[in-house]
Structure to design on (88 residues):
């Protein structure tokens, strides 16, 4: 199932660890503090435990939520960035 991870972490060191953990699980970085990708139930639970351990008692918030294909089809991408050249 597809999974979004969204976080707001004050401390740079912890925020970078969260980013690296999401990458370790093969999630795609879609915005500054948002990752997205395919994770089965076991991998998602494992990721949540690892993120919780990484955050510890530091200030911050991490949201991990699965999204089904039906709801994913309702996703709207609103973007005002100019087109990137083909070589970028």
């Amino acid at each position: 199932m597809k999974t979004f991870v969204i976080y707001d972490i004050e401390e740079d060191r912890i925020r970078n660890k969260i980013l690296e953990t999401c990458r370790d699980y093969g999630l795609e970085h879609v915005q500054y503090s948002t990752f997205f990708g395919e994770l089965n139930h076991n991998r998602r639970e494992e990721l949540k435990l690892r993120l919780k351990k990484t955050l510890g008692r530091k200030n911050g918030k991490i949201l991990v939520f699965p999204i089904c294909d039906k709801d994913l089809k309702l996703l709207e991408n609103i973007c005002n960035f100019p087109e990137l050249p083909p070589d970028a």
